[in-house]
Design goal:
The protein is built from 9 helices and 10 strands. It is of the alpha+beta class. The chain has 2 domains: 126 residues, no CATH class; 141 residues, Rossmann fold (3-Layer(aba) Sandwich). It is elongated.
Length: 291
Amino acid sequence: MDPKLRFPVQAVVVRYLHDAGVGESLNVGVVLLCEKAGFAGARFLSSWSRITAAFHDADAVHLRRFVRALEDHCDGYSAVQMPIDRADVVAFVREVLPPADQGLMLSAPISGLAADPERLLGELYERYVGQHVDAPVRVARADDDVWRSVSTHVPAHLLVRLRPHIVSDPDSPVFRLEFKHAWRNAGMHVVQPLSFDLASAENVQQKASQWIGNIIALEPKRFDTSVHIVVGFPARDQPRAVTTAAHAALELLDRRLRNQAVEVLKEDSASALASRILQDLNDHPDETKLD
C-alpha cells in the first residue's frame, strides 16, 4: 500500500455490558472499516477471563460466537480487494450483532485518515482495550446488592408478598418501566435500588441521567405510583471522582424528581424504608395484594 495515500476510515469500540441497570461496561474489541481500501478488520480479547473474572455469569460462549462471526464478516469484506460502497462501521457490525443483544454495546464511530488501516486497527486496539487487559478489574455492586440493604430488614414471609410492577403509558405501551419490588397501600409503591458503586464518574452520571429521563418522561405519579429510590454509594477504596459524582447524582435525582412523587434515600436510610414497608404489609394486608 502506497504510504503517501491516506484513506478515510471509521472504527468502533465494542463494549461488554453485563447489567444495564448497573451501567458497568468493559471494552473488549475494536472494528475498523476502510471502504476505499476495501479493508475491514476486528481485534478482540484473546481470552475472556477478564470478563468472567468481573462478571461470573457472563456467557463467554456467546461472546466467542459473536467474535468469530464478526471476524468472518470482516474477512469476506476484505477478500473482495476493491472499494465497496459501505462506509458506516456501526451498520456493518450490526449486520452480525443480533438486534436483541443488549450485552454488547458500540461506541460512537471514530473517524479519521490512515495510510495503513491494519496498523491503525492495532493501535486503536492497544489504546482502548490492550492497555487495560492486565489492569485489576473491580467488581461493581449491582442494584440487587443495594436492595439487600432494604430486604434484610423485612421478614421473609412478608417479603414474598412484594411483586413486580410495570408502569406503562397506554398511549405509548412500548415505553415502560418495570420495578421488581412493589406493594399497594392506597396506591402503588415501588422501590428502585440504584448502585452508584461504579468504575467511573461518567458511568455514575449516565446512570443517574438515564433514570431521571425515564421517570420524567413516563411520570409514574400519573398512574398512582410512588417511587422510592435507594442509592448505594461507592466503596471507600473508590477514586474520589466517583464518590463526588455519586453525591452530585444523589442531589440531582432529589432535585429533578421532587415533583414526581419520588422519594430519594441514601442506602443508610434503607432500614427506615423497610419499616414503612413492614407497617404497610402488616396494617393493610388486603391492599398489598397486587392485581
